[in-house]
C-alpha cells in the first residue's frame, strides 16, 4: 500500500514511513493511494471474530508490504491485551434503537488508547534495529497526552515532549500524564490555552531550523496509523448489529474529525453505514461546514467536553481532498486561503459528496445535560459529557429504522465534576487507576513562547546527527 499527501507535493511513502513521519513535508496529511474494499462475503465473515481477529482483517490491506498478517496479529494481541474488557470495545444497548460503543476500556479511560496503544508498538517495532531516534512533540487538551504517554513510556528510541495548558485539564487527565516518571517522558505545563500549545507544536514542525535538528514525529490524529486503528471498531460494532445485511448509523462526538473520518474510511471499504452523525458542542465549525458549506473559524468557547473544544479540525482536510476528486493542487489553494482568511466555502463537489453519508448537529449545554440524565435514568448508563453530545445528536437524528451506535469516547470518571453537575452522582474511579491520587507528580512549567519551549526540548532531545 502506498500513501499520498492531500497537498500533492510530498513523496509517496509506504506504511512504515508514513507512520514515522506523521505530517507530510508539504504540510498535507497522508492517505492511502486507493481505498481497499472488503466484499459482502468478507464482511459477513467477520461475524463472531474476536476484536483482534477483526482488526487483522480490516487493517491488513493498509499495512501490506510492511507487516505480514502474523506480525500484525501479534501487535494487536499485545495492544488490545491491555484493555480491561474481554470484548475490547463492547456494545451496550440503551433502548430499541440506541446503542453505546464503549471505547474507554484502555489504560487511560478514553478512546485515544485504541489507536495509541497500537501506535506505540508500531513505533517501537519500526525503530528497533535502527539507530534512528524519534522526538515526539505533542499538544494535548488531556486525552491524547495521557494515552500517548502510557503507550510510549519506557520505550527505547523515543522521547515524548507533551505540552498541556496549565490549569486547564481535569485533575484525572493531568495526573495520568504527570505521574508517569519514565525518563523518556517530559511533561510541560505552558501558560496559555490548548490552542496556544497546539500553535507552538505546529511552529516547531514548520521551523526548518528546529525540525532539521531532530526527527520530529506526531502522535495526534494527523498520524494515519491512528485513524487506521479506529476503522476497526466500526466494522466490529456493525457486524454485531447485523451488517452487511442490515445498515447501521453511527453518532460520533467530534473535535479534530479523526474518529468520524475513520467511519468514512469504513464506509469507503464497503461497510453499509446508513449515516455518520457528526456531533459537535457549541464549537460548531464542522456543523456549519457540513450543513451550510461554511468552514470558518470562531473563537474557542471552553465547555465540559474539552476534547471537542476545537475551531480548526485538522482531519477535515482529508475528507475535502477525497470528496474533491483528490486534486492536491486545488486543495492546497483552498487550504492556503483558509490559512490566511480563517474562512472558506466548501465546493459544490465537496458538499454534494458529503451529503449522502454525513449529517451533523450542534449540541448546547442543556441538551448535553438532558442526554446524560436520560442515559442514567432511563437506560441505567452513566455517560461522560463527550458521549452525551453524540447521544443527544443521535436521539434527534432522522435516520429511519436502523440501529444507531453512539461512540462512547471517555469513561465518565475522567470528567467526574461535569457528570456530577448533570446527574447528581459522582462516578467512582475504576480500580485500574486506583492509586492515581497518591502517586508523585513531575512536570516543568514554562512560559508559552517558542523560545522557551524549543530551548527546553533542544537541551533534552537526541539530535538527528547522533542518530
Ligand atoms: C479526542 C476526543 C474526541 C474527539 O475526537 P476527534 O477524533 O478529535 O474528532 C471526543 N471525545 C473524547 C473523549 C476525546 O478524547
Automatic annotation (TrEMBL):
Cofactor dependence is on:
pyridoxal 5'-phosphate
NCBIfam families attached here? thrC (TIGR00260)
Q: In which pathway does it act?
A: Amino-acid biosynthesis; L-threonine biosynthesis; L-threonine from L-aspartate: step 5/5
E.C. number, please? 4.2.3.1
Q: Please verify whether the record's keywords include Lyase.
A: yes
GO BP annotations, alphabetical order: threonine biosynthetic process
Which sequence positions carry the modification called N6-(pyridoxal phosphate)lysine? 112
One term of GO molecular function: pyridoxal phosphate binding
Write down the chemical reaction(s) this protein catalyses: O-phospho-L-homoserine + H2O = L-threonine + phosphate
| Lineage per the UniProt record | Bacteria, Pseudomonadati, Pseudomonadota, Alphaproteobacteria, Sphingomonadales
List each copy of the Threonine synthase N-terminal domain by range.
Answer: 2-80
Q: What is this protein called?
A: Threonine synthase
Q: Where is the Tryptophan synthase beta chain-like PALP domain?
A: 86-333
Q: Which family does it belong to?
A: Belongs to the threonine synthase family.
CDD domains documented for this protein: Thr-synth_2
Mind telling me which PANTHER family this protein's record contains? THREONINE SYNTHASE FAMILY MEMBER (PTHR42690), THREONINE SYNTHASE-LIKE 2 (PTHR42690:SF1)
Matching SUPFAM superfamilies: Tryptophan synthase beta subunit-like PLP-dependent enzymes (SSF53686)
Q: What class of enzyme is it?
A: lyase
What is an example of a Pfam family matching this protein?
A: Thr_synth_N
Which keywords describe this protein according to UniProt? Amino-acid biosynthesis, Lyase, Pyridoxal phosphate, Threonine biosynthesis
The question of whether tRNA processing is a record keyword is answered with: no
Amino acid at each position: 500500500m502506498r500513501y499520498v499527501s492531500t497537498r500533492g507535493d510530498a513523496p509517496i511513502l509506504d506504511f512504515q514511513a508514513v507512520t514515522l513521519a506523521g505530517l507530510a513535508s508539504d504540510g498535507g496529511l497522508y492517505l492511502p493511494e486507493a481505498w481497499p474494499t472488503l466484499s459482502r462475503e468478507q464482511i459477513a465473515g467477520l461475524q463472531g471474530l474476536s476484536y483482534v481477529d477483526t482488526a487483522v482483517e480490516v487493517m491488513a490491506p493498509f499495512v501490506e508490504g510492511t507487516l505480514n498478517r502474523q506480525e500484525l496479529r501479534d501487535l494487536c494481541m499485545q495492544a488490545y491485551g491491555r484493555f480491561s474488557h474481554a470484548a475490547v470495545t463492547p456494545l451496550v444497548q440503551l433502548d430499541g434503537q440506541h446503542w453505546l460503543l464503549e471505547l474507554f476500556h484502555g489504560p487511560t479511560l478514553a478512546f485515544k488508547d485504541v489507536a495509541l496503544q497500537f501506535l506505540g508498538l508500531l513505533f517501537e517495532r519500526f525503530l528497533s534495529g535502527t539507530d534512528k531516534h524519534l522526538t515526539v512533540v505533542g499538544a494535548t487538551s488531556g486525552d491524547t497526552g495521557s494515552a500517548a504517554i502510557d503507550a510510549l513510556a519506557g520505550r527505547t528510541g523515543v522521547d515524548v515532549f507533551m505540552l498541556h495548558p496549565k490549569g486547564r485539564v481535569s485533575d484525572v487527565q493531568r495526573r495520568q500524564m504527570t505521574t508517569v516518571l519514565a525518563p523518556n517522558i517530559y511533561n510541560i505545563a505552558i501558560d496559555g490555552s490548548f490552542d496556544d500549545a497546539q500553535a507552538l507544536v505546529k511552529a516547531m514542525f514548520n521551523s526548518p531550523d528546529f525540525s532539521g535538528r531532530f526527527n520530529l514525529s506526531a502522535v495526534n490524529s494527523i498520524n494515519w496509523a491512528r485513524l487506521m486503528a479506529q476503522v476497526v471498531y466500526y466494522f466490529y460494532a456493525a457486524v454485531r448489529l447485523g451488517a452487511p445485511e442490515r445498515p447501521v448509523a453511527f453518532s460520533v462526538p467530534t473535535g479534530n474529525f479523526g474518529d468520524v473520518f475513520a467511519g468514512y474510511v469504513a464506509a469507503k471499504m464497503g461497510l453499509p453505514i446508513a449515516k455518520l452523525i457528526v456531533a459537535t458542542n457549541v464549537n460548531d465549525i464542522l456543523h456549519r461546514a457540513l450543513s451550510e458549506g461554511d468552514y470558518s473559524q470562531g473563537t474557542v468557547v471552553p465547555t465540559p467536553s474539552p476534547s471537542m473544544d476545537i475551531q480548526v479540525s485538522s482531519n477535515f482536510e482529508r475528507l475535502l481532498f477525497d470528496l474533491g476528486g483528490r486534486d492536491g493542487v486545488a486543495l492546497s489553494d483552498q487550504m492556503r486561503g483558509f490559512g490566511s482568511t480563517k474562512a472558506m466555502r466548501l465546493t459544490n463537489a465537496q458538499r454534494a459528496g458529503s451529503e449522502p453519508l454525513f449529517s451533523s448537529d450542534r449540541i448546547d449545554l442543556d441538551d448535553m445535560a438532558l442526554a446524560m440524565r436520560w442515559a442514567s435514568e432511563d437506560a441505567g448508563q452513566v455517560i461522560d459529557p463527550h458521549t452525551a453530545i453524540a447521544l443527544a445528536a443521535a436521539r434527534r437524528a432522522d435516520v429511519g429504522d436502523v440501529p444507531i451506535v453512539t461512540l462512547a469516547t471517555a469513561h465518565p470518571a475522567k470528567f467526574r465534576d461535569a457528570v456530577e453537575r448533570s446527574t447528581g452522582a459522582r462516578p467512582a474511579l475504576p480500580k485500574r487507576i486506583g492509586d492515581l491520587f497518591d502517586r508523585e507528580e513531575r512536570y516543568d512549567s514554562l512560559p508559552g513562547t517558542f523560545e522557551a519551549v524549543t530551548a527546553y526540548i533542544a537541551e533534552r532531545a537526541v539530535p538527528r546527527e547522533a542518530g
